[in-house]
Write a structure and sequence with these properties.
It holds the Pfam family AgrB. With 194 residues, the chain is mainly alpha-helical. The chain has seven helices and no strands. It has one domain.
Length: 194
């Protein structure tokens, strides 16, 4: 992926589309963009293999809304992040397929996840520390996204679209678990510093 990003950047410099002084910035951007495309393509492929394409799309959209503002656990390497993400989507789709939540359980999981996210978010990572202002901004944003996703979940439950409600609820549950794991990782990291 990195080789492809560098080659594309070099071609754009050769064609005088970008300045050579901006090479590192563009190469990094192409590399990150390629990783995002590869990750999303993997999610869609897994969704297709499970026969659950729309479920994988709903999960990645709802999880993709809450995760960046709530924070939480981050793997130490891109490879581990990718493997963890693949495992995560397989677990979620398996739960949706073979262990769907009843409306009552969905509401209970929603309440638990919502409480965890409301209280803990945002959880910073050692690679993405947050200053006091960023903490306030991300806390506010995470609560807005949580409110919207919770309202959508309840709307889907009331209108009988329980599978969609289950999907959003699981995205919030995964986010809550990532917050808890992030706090554990941060505490362990601080202990090793001393």
């Amino acid at each position: 992926m990195e080789h492809l990003a560098n080659a594309l950047t070099d071609k754009l410099i050769d064609w005088k589309i970008i300045n050579s002084e901006d090479r590192d910035l563009y190469a990094y951007g192409f590399w990150q963009g390629g990783i995002y495309i590869f990750n999303y393509a993997s999610v869609f492929l897994i969704g297709l293999l499970f026969g659950m394409l729309w479920q994988s799309v709903v999960f990645i959209l709802s999880y993709g809304l809450i995760r960046p503002v709530a924070g939480g656990y981050h793997a130490r390497t891109q490879r581990n992040c990718y493997l963890f993400s693949v495992l995560l989507i397989v677990i979620v789709l398996s739960m949706l397929k073979w262990f769907p939540l009843s409306s009552i359980v969905c509401i209970l999981v929603l309440l638990f996840s919502g409480a965890v996210i409301f209280i803990l978010a945002p959880v910073e990572d050692e690679n993405k520390p947050l200053d006091e202002t960023e903490q306030m901004v991300y806390r506010h944003r995470s609560r807005i996204v949580l409110s919207v996703l919770s309202a959508l979940t309840l709307l889907f439950l009331v209108t009988g679209l329980v599978p969609i409600a289950n999907n959003i609820t699981l995205s919030l549950l995964v986010s809550a678990i990532m917050l808890i794991l992030g706090i554990i990782k941060n505490k362990r990291g601080r202990k090793t510093e001393y």
